[in-house]
Design a protein that fits this description.
CATH superfamily of the largest domain: Vaccinia Virus protein VP39
Strand content: 25-35%
Largest sheet: 7 strands, mixed
Number of helices: 8
Oligomer: single chain
CATH class of the largest domain: Alpha Beta
Distance between the termini: 43 Å
Length: 253
């Protein structure tokens, strides 16, 4: 579990992602808000994956590009109707400025949808990603980050847990996780047990970046917080919010 490569999550979850995570966030609300923010400019999605968000954005009339480190995820995207028409680059989204297709394009929105940015498990990688995204914005464009509101004090004590994710006569999926609040880290494995098949391990890891820390990382990349909501439909962001949608723009000179 100490070794987490950029492609680890996507390669581990590509075959079940659409089944397990189709409803992990408000796609309809995401599309409506991104259409509003992007205006006439194209959109770049970081961690585009199987196209859960990108394909609905494209269906709404936006020009959508993407980056993903996982070849398995991108294969799933390309196999879907419309997926082959998207400009996509394979690589680490921490290097977004160098990778974003097409070369030299400027975007109205650079989007890191639900918890995508936090799959970068090092603070410097997150900073580099945000700075690279800022470098590819069109005039008036914005970087939008959606994710859980991580508060290390609220993660509970450091330690391990095991829970049942799903249980059928033919299949058991166990969730084994470890919390490290001091290290700003959540990590785990889904242990996928199918009758008659080899055991499948699906590793994941998140850096539990707080909204305040995210603002600091964005600031180091030349961005400033413009708006923060408790959801894509403009819900107020409060101390009780579980999710944030944070909109960053280029800091005024």
């Amino acid at each position: 579990m100490d070794r987490h490569e950029p492609e680890s999550y996507g390669d581990a979850f590509a075959d079940v992602y659409d089944e397990w995570y189709a409803d992990v966030s408000d796609v309809e609300g995401t599309v409506a808000r991104v259409v509003e923010l992007a205006g006439d400019h194209p959109v770049l999605e970081l961690g585009i994956g199987t196209g859960r968000v990108a394909l609905p954005l494209a269906a709404a009339g936006l020009s959508v590009s993407g980056i993903d480190a996982s070849a398995a995820m991108l294969d799933r995207l390309r196999a879907k109707p419309g997926g082959g028409a998207l400009a996509v680059a394979r690589g680490d989204m921490a290097d977004v400025d160098a990778l974003a297709p097409p070369p030299g394009a400027r975007f109205g929105v650079v989007l890191a949808a639900f918890n995508t940015l936090f799959n970068l498990v090092d603070a410097d990688e997150q900073r580099r990603c945000l700075a690279g995204a800022a470098a590819r914005l069109a005039p008036g464009g914005c970087v939008v980050v959606e994710g859980n509101v991580f508060d290390p004090a609220g993660l509970g004590p450091a330690g391990d847990s095991v829970a049942v994710r799903s249980l059928t006569p033919e299949r058991v999926v166990l969730s084994v996780s470890r919390a490290d609040p001091a290290g700003h880290r959540l990590s785990g494995q889904f242990v996928d047990l199918v009758d008659g098949a080899p055991v499948r391990l699906r590793p994941w890891a998140l850096r539990t970046t707080t909204p305040a820390e995210l603002d600091d990382l964005a600031g180091a990349g030349g961005l400033v917080l413009a708006e923060r909501w408790g959801g894509w439909r403009g819900e107020p962001f409060t101390d009780e919010s579980d999710v944030h949608v944070s909109v960053y723009r280029i800091a005024p000179v």
